[in-house]
Specification:
By secondary structure, the protein is mainly alpha-helical. The chain is built from 3 helices and no strands.
């Protein structure tokens, strides 16, 4: 009985939440193992969400880098085309 008193004192204002959880556990016929699996699954989901966020940031960075490289390639193509035009005109003028 002492553990029940200690539990009640530790709950403080969370007593309604404790009752809700107990009623839900009874309604869903959850045992200790089921509750442990649910809590672990929730922790795993949070970890996976964090990993997804990290991968998303990495992918956005890669997309930005790709876009910058494509712009640089286009710039260099334009520069080369202009250089080729200049060289072509120089060759025509030298004849």
């Amino acid at each position: 009985m002492g553990w029940l008193v200690k539990l009640y004192k530790n709950l403080n204002n969370d007593y309604p939440l404790f009752i809700y959880l107990y009623q839900r556990m009874e309604k869903e016929c959850l045992n200790k193992h089921d509750i442990t699996v649910l809590v672990k699954s929730q922790q795993d989901l949070k970890f996976m969400e964090h990993r997804v966020d990290l991968y998303s940031e990495f992918i956005r960075g890669q997309q930005l880098q790709k876009q910058q490289l494509e712009q640089e390639i286009n710039y260099l193509h334009q520069k080369r085309a202009n250089y080729d035009k200049i060289n072509f005109h120089k060759k025509e003028c030298s004849f």
